[in-house]
Amino acid sequence: xxxxxRDFESQQIPIDSESPTNNxxxxxxxxxxxxxxxxxRVTCYKKEIxxxxxxxxxxxxxxxxxxIETQRNxxxxxxxxxxxxxxxxxxQKDQNKKLQQQLTQLKKERSHMQQEVDHYKGRVCILExxxxxxxQRIYKQSQRLIRLPxxxxxxxxxxx
Length: 160
What we know:
Radius of gyration: 60 Å
Largest sheet: none
Number of helices: 2
Number of strands: 0
Structural class: mainly alpha
Oligomer: single chain
Order of helices and strands: HH
């Protein structure tokens, strides 16, 4: 369109007082020529507008088709990824549940073992106490046995 503007400007006839177009008929012819040139330019612009509109519509259609094709091509991959992620989430939930159950079981076992340890500690204390009392009795008996020969000797001497 800028080329058309330059062509139009080069075709314009300058108006001055010494020009043969200075009379009315010349002016009318000149104005008619300008109108014809303007109409030609409008017609060219309209044609350009139609060409641009067609180009835009073709581009929009092409983009729309590409968009549909892209969605069609990506949809299965997206669906597969979604299914895979959902499956992985379920697997992880199952694993978490199993681990939680194992942890609960281990805690129960630990608690039971701690109770047994506490029970056996109590038994050890009782046994230690019993051993201590028993050792005291043995000590007392051994002391008596040590003194017994002296007492027997004393009693034998007294009888004589």
